[in-house]
Each structure stands twice: as C-alpha cells, then as structure tokens.
Write a structure and sequence with these properties.
Layout (H helix, E strand, L loop, with lengths): L1 E5 L6 E5 L4 E4 L3 H6 L3 E5 L3 E3 L6 E4 L7 E5 L7 E5 L5 E6 L12 E4 L6
Parallel strand pairs: 3-10
Antiparallel strand pairs: 1-2, 2-5, 4-9, 6-7, 7-8, 8-9
C-alpha cells in the first residue's frame, strides 16, 4: 500500500510504500519529546515529493540518524538512518500520515533492535 504524508504546512510531502502493521514509540530524548510514532521502512520505499531544500536536518549523540523537519512549520515527518545490519532505512512519523487511523495501529515501545 502507498501512503501519502506531509508536515503540517505541506512544504514537505512524501509517499511511502509498505504494510503499516505497527509503530514504535521510540524512547530516545528526541523522539520521546516530539511524541513520534515511528514506522521503519527500507529507505527506497520512501520518496520525497517536494524540494529537499525545504527539509532541515538535526543530528545528535552519535549522529547516526538524521532527524528531518520542516523549516517552516517545524514538524518532524521522518528521519533517515541505517538499521543494525547497515541497510538504509527511513523512520516515518505515523502521525504525519493523515489517512491513517492511529487507533488501528499497534504501538510498541522501543526495546532495542530485533532484526
């Protein structure tokens, strides 16, 4: 299935392909403060539909994950990184997928990588 997502103002828009069965409530200091519910997909499954010039990036700690945000509204719709096996992945903030009914998504607390 293909989902369309965006930041609040629409300056960052994207599509993501996959089966959304669950999301992760990450416990890192960044995601827990943002309230992100993350769906991890291979990076090739996520396609930015708007200019990358509108995307801000923030990294911290070991700088392994690029947390992306809108330079206009400040929303954090996705992040880029690699999984423990070294595969590029995207962490999609499910809250930025307007057609997804959040009550239908199983939410798991992050307890380490289990790939």
């Amino acid at each position: 299935m293909t989902y369309k997502g965006s930041c609040h103002c629409g300056k960052i828009a994207f599509e993501v392909e996959g089966e959304l069965t669950a999301a992760t409530a990450c416990n890192c200091s960044m995601c827990s403060r943002k309230g992100s519910l993350l769906w991890f997909v291979p990076r090739d499954n996520m396609h930015l539909l708007t200019s990358p010039n509108d995307v801000g990036t923030y990294t911290f700690n070991k700088h392994r994950i690029q947390h992306h945000f809108c330079r206009v509204c400040g929303m954090h719709p996705y992040a880029d990184g690699v999984d423990p096996k070294g595969n590029p992945m995207a962490a999609i903030n499910v809250r930025c997928l307007p057609e997804v009914e959040l009550a239908s998504v199983q939410v798991k607390n992050f307890d380490g990588w289990s790939l």
